[in-house]
Amino acid sequence: MLTPGLTLAMIVKNEERNLVRCLDSVRDLVRELIVVDTGSADRTPQIAADYGAKIIPFDFRVVDFAAARNYAIAQATSRWILMLDADETLDRTSIPLLGQILASGERDGHYLERRNFASDSALPTTDYCVRLFPNLPRYRYRGRVHETIDASILAAGARLRQSGIRIDHHFAADREARRRKNRWYIEILQEEIAADPSDGTRLDFLAAEYHQLEMFAEATRVTERIVQMRPRDARARLFLGAYRLLYQPDLARARAELNEALRLRPGYPEAQSFLQLLDEHEGRPNQSGSVG
């Protein structure tokens, strides 16, 4: 069931264990398969070639995932692009939704629901990422790590929509390997921030990396910078309040940040929950429904 006008674009390195499962999930759907290889030493290129992929080597001595993804996009000739990683698969029940989007004449990008299955956990976690978008020159990824295409789509005047399409992400939950990756990403993010201090998105990812490493003092300092840059960001206020409540603790400043998050986003359930926790900690009657 070849879907007209769809290119699958990927960047890979040493993915022989995962690649077959990924490509099998889309093999009868895509018109074109672009695989940018950043230095595989296993059978990854041969497996991709067996599926009819165009395989393009990419110099990755300077780590830049956005550049690699954009290089893949630049080779695509279809009207639409689906971007998957080798450890992801398309949920086949999503095929009708995919067909409806491809048949439209819209310029919008689409969020896919990603179910993340870790090898050490029975239950998946869910997040959303923009992985389906028209092949337009202005739609390009940004960020050497934690690269996203969202900002360029919005800057072009298009929208980001929830698609209902699902992908499954299966990854090995090696705690020490994850921590090494966190530290590596922190180094790169710090380089990006030094090069462009005005890019607040890099600070968001840096705070998240510190949080995953349980370096909460560092995560708090970065979140303070985010709030300075975006004082009306309710989510940033929420995180800063939570850090000051749980890890410092600084209850008065925590309450101020959580109340501000609730003022900026009335009814914000997470802010209300943290305010209730703070009330209980201080032995106060619950005040989480107000921002006074």
Spatial sequence of strands, sheet with the most strands: 3-2-1-4-7-6-8-5
Judged by helices, strands and strand pairing, the structural class is alpha/beta
Percentage of helical residues?
A: 40-55%
Give the termini separation. 59 Å
Shape: globular
CATH topology of the largest domain: Spore Coat Polysaccharide Biosynthesis Protein SpsA, Chain A
CATH C-level name of the largest domain: Alpha Beta
Percent strand? 15-25%
Number of strands: 8
Mean pLDDT: 93
CATH superfamily of the largest domain: Spore Coat Polysaccharide Biosynthesis Protein SpsA, Chain A
Question: Into how many domains do the coordinates divide?
Answer: 2
The radius of gyration is 21 Å
**Low-pLDDT segments, ≥5 res:** none
Strand count, sense and barrel status of the largest sheet are: 8 strands, mixed
Q: Care to describe what's here?
A:
Helix 7 (200-212) packs antiparallel against helix 8 and helix 9 runs parallel beside helix 11 (269-282). This protein has 2 domains: 6-171, Spore Coat Polysaccharide Biosynthesis Protein SpsA, Chain A, CATH 3.90.550; 175-282, Tetratricopeptide repeat domain (Serine Threonine Protein Phosphatase 5, Tetratricopeptide repeat), CATH 1.25.40. The protein has helices at residues 19-24, 44-50, 65-75, 95-103, 150-155, 175-195, 200-212, 216-229, 234-246, 251-264, 269-282, and strands at 6-12, 32-37, 54-57, 80-83, 88-90, 109-118, 125-134, 160-171. It has an 8-stranded mixed beta sheet with strand order 3-2-1-4-7-6-8-5, with helices on both faces. With 292 residues, it is an alpha/beta fold. Helix 2 (44-50) links the parallel strand 2 and strand 3. The chain contains 11 helices and 8 strands. The radius of gyration is 21 Å and the shape is globular.
